[in-house]
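User: For documentation purposes, I need each entry recorded in a consistent format: the amino acid sequence on its own, followed directly by the corresponding structure tokens. There are two entries in this batch. Please keep commentary to a minimum and don't merge the entries.

Assistant: Recorded as requested. Entry 1:
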Amino acid sequence: MRFLTAAILFVVSATLILVGIAQRTVWHPPANHVSVVSVDTKTPLIVIKSSALRQFEGNPLVSVKTTGKSFIASGRQADVDAWVGSTNHVVVAALSGSDNSKLIATAVAGNGKLANPAGSDLWRTEVNAVGDLKSRIKLSDKTAVLVASDGFADAPTQISLTWRIVFDPTPSNVLIIVGGIMLLAAVILNWLAWYQMRKERGPRRRTPRAPQGPKLRRRRTRSSAPVRGRRSARNLSVAVTGLIVAGSLTGCSVLPGSASPSPALSGATSIQQPPVVTAAQLHTIVQRIASVVALADAGRDSKILATRVSGPAFDSRKAHYILQKASKKVKGLPLIASQKLSLLLPAASNLWPRTVMVISSTGAADNLPQMLVLQQKTPRSQYQLWYNIGMLPGAKLPVVNTPAVGAIPVAADSLFLKIAPNALPTAFGDLIDNGQSSLSAPMFDVSDDEYYKQVAASQQSQATTLDNATIKMKHLLGNPNVISLSTVNSGALVAVFMNDKYVIKPKDRTQAVAVSGNEKLLLGSAGSSTGIKSFYGSMLLFYVPAIASKDKIITLGATQVLLSVKSL
């Protein structure tokens, strides 16, 4: 019986080993899935849709063949479509139906303006070269690809998509290993059976048999009762074990070529839109802005500055350039820090303009972080730095969503907050002028607000020391573009520009108003007998709680810059 068991084990082991080897040779899948498309229409732009990139599992390699310039960029499909707009282009998509491995190219006529797509802030990745070009595209949510030359000449027409087929050797390894173990067991069992057979065939002493009486022959009857005994039980267990092992190992095998398209990544919620940029995109955008600002600061060139800076941030820096040109003793404003980004809060929106808030720092202990507020007006424009606000010491930020989720934009006249964001300068300015007697005092928490304390103390000191002159102060909304993003508790982070106007007039004509420091540099003289009108700009960052919240409005950051000084 042992010889039979060994033979069964040998057959099963040989079968398992052969199946394992076949999975690595005969049944081994090809190295790649390849889809090729040839564009017959001459066009400056080719858009490869998300459906074409997701034909097979994994991140595809996009390859183009050309003798001229080549450019490949990836981005969210909605962003790629928005950038292309109504420009003449070709759309490459997967053929709907059973055969999803076939690509079709459809020409889309348009009359939009041509432009070079290189360097756009919308792209997650971009590469360019002269001649053939390849780019591995990392798929996340709905990713699309833009292929071009320089946006004006015809785009490359030979495009191929390649997906790696990942072969898992684990099933074949298991089959080969288990088959080898069973083969070894068959050899051992066969040797034991042979050894036992030789042992039982040794010399035996024959003893005479005693006389026996007649035997009574009984008729044998067939019984349906199960056969009992050690041999029958052992044979049954060996057969059952062999069937179980073979069945389980057969179930572990993987048929090649059965890969299915990778599932689309789902967003945080089905209602909220995806964030306008990824964390990697935002790092690139901040570095680009920082390099442009550094170049503009070095030459005090407002034209270079205007390519990446707008609004209050531009007005503040341009005014400081005038001061620096008037005196070499005036130090430059702090550079845009891009070494460390500690808070990334993109807006969750598909519309323009788009907004991003990010806190950056140099990482040094003596440098306070900066809140950079960026905005992109149109799909083809770059993100501009609108607010550059220094964070106040000890400021505690409210809880906000992660960069992968983003924040919902809040309207400037929203009625769901403690106060509408565009009304903040007037209310906060009245608090600065009148202190706790202001009607807006109950809404603000200024117990740890160093900016409020310094500005209020300076104004009060001026009012008390001017014996021969009068001073009037007014705080207004300096720019209508108030940028707000929601927090987790239904509040909002609000970036706003407050214009501070100070008018000082002498009480009689025999007196004059004297100025010093930066005001003297901008005025060009030491004072005026008719009076002085000064404008300061304050970029402020507030946390404004929801209207039903018991929390108060807190100043998180502030940057004040002298804008202009004029004689009355």
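Entry 2:
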Amino acid sequence: MAYQALYRVFRPQSFQDVVGQEHVTRTLKNAIVQNKTSHAYLFSGPRGTGKTSAAKIFAKAINCPNSVDGEPCNVCDICTGTTDGSIPDVLEIDAASNNGVEEIRDIREKVKYAPTVAKYKVYIIDEVHMLSTGAFNALLKTLEEPPKHVIFILATTEPHKLPLTIISRVQRFDFKRITTQDIIGRLAFILDEEKIAYDEKALDIVARAAEGGMRDALSLLDQVISYGTQEVTVADALEITGSVAQGMLTELVQAVIDSDAKQALEKLSGLLAEGKDPVRLVEDLLVFFRDVLLFQKAPDLTDAMERAVIDEAFQTLATAADANKIYQYVTILNDAGQQMRFSNHPGIYIEVALVQLIQVGGGATPATSNQQAVAPSGDVAELTNKVDRLEQELNELKRQIASGAVAANNAGAQQAAPRKKQAISGNKQFKAPVGRINAVLSAAKKQDLQLIRSCWSDLISMLMASQAALLNEAEPVAASNDTFVLKFKHEIHCQMAMDNPNFVDTVTNGISRLTKNNYSFIGIPEDQWGEIRENFLKNADNTEAEDGGEKAPEPAEDPLISEAAKLVGEGLIEIKE
């Protein structure tokens, strides 16, 4: 006979074989014993948790003439026929491929006929959420009042997709994810039955990788057995699941806590070069940090550890770790994990996340002298206070320099202006092109600015997350027929944007596609924009004064416009020729 997968060979044949769902199996057995079964059931829950198996066991148990305490005998013709699918009174239907109205109408016609062999005719509809709306409507009346000899069992992984009219007509049982310990116990039982040697740590790795699904765990175990020789080993389990050995994980986390960027990145590069899955690595780090926190708060709960083995290296690391920083580590890793699921280059995200973890760690270098290493706590506190005061004074000085107050106090009115300009230019790393911006202002048109602003949100949605982040606090403030001025709230964002040719090309191409016009743009920080705009307006006024102060005669005000302005205000009126 051809080889069969473990999850097929060891499919549960009785309620006691269903692992981790005692709240379901106990209720069903009692209902059978007390003869209080319902006409329709809904089994919902994650994949591989025993929904279809429980449905078949229930179909056997309710029809088995030799059942004991609600358990089928698995020996009689009805039990064996239900197991191999030969009995005509137990029908398993795949709703994913039979989801039309005609299939349900066929069921409605056949439920009228009495069962041929068994006491009850049982319909098991798997993946019932795949039925069409018409099929659900066709099923409603039959599901509510079927003949006394018919029982419906609906199974689904997505119960929220079922109409409430269906859910209200069934008894619902929610299958939960199977715990790691329950999966390990079942795997050990199967390996003992197959007479295969194993390492318990290897079963722990397989069980955690299955994420609560018994079928996934058995499929992984099948792969590990095929990959190895005569024993299920930790090395084989790590290789198949893509997980990381605890020693490597401990060394990586220790480098992060020590803010050793070189060591951490080298460890990460080595793991990725070995073919470790970046997504799985992030999950391993998340669970590892969770175990560190758990060990710090409740060191006696060793059974609750999901990833870590309590060895000497782990205890040393957990004792020295800062809980507040671990909370930040978890947030960073969680964000990276979400972004990696939608990226073709997940390795980049984990490298960036690792650098962020090291920065959160503080980047502090170890003491370079014995005196520093044994500095009294009072001296450290005094030094910390001095550093804080110096930072405050430095920030205050920067604000004064930006406002020109220092220049005004140190010199006379004639020397103040040059010093102020020098201070400002020295403080700013990015210098906006004043001449080009003045040219845009001279030819600025309101229509161009409105066109660009109307497409701005669409442009941001088109960009990658990292590019869109630079534009979240940026806005177009002036535009001519071929160029617009883009104001950035922070100077560093302006610097990063304008120094990146790829970013400039992406934004230029995107706005051109949206507006159907070839626009280029000029970036400028918010504080420089205010200064340049003010100078432009002053120069424009001076030019008019030098020309004799004669302005073009203003057109006579329209009485209709005047009345409208009185009613709604001038700010809400837009005049079009």
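Summary note for entry 2:
The chain has five domains: 6-174, 180-241, 261-360, 402-429, 434-543.
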